[in-house]
Prior knowledge:
Strand content: 15-25%
Strand order of the largest sheet: 2-1-3-4-5
Radius of gyration: 13 Å
Number of domains: 1
Largest sheet: 5 strands, parallel
CATH superfamily: Response regulator
Order of helices and strands: EHEHEHEHEH
Number of helices: 5
Distance between the termini: 20 Å
CATH architecture: 3-Layer(aba) Sandwich
Amino acid sequence: MLERDGAQERLLLVGDDPAAAEALSAHLSRHGFLVVGRVRTAEAARTAARYTAPDVVLVDSAVHDGWRNVVDALDGVLEHGRIAVLASYWDADTRRDAAATGVGAVILKAMQGASLAGRLREIAAHA
């Protein structure tokens, strides 16, 4: 496991779109996050989380493995509540289901800039 880095929140990205992951990594790095990994599958997320000790994991809801499989793979590796799912749209029932599985928040893809970074910091701090 890596040493903790101090002031920067450590973030792991899970999604299958390399261009979107690159853009999110650059964006969140500019807002003070240390992006410790970008992975595409639930199993890769589990392995990466074990070795990088992220403060928060951001999962694209459209990831091929399915966001629920990613959350399940992280069970026992990451504290509940330290996972955020990035979605275009999410209904109230799915939000409740996500919270019941250990998701700290559902963040709409329209959120960006300092608002996105701030919400991820809240998740990292309060889980």
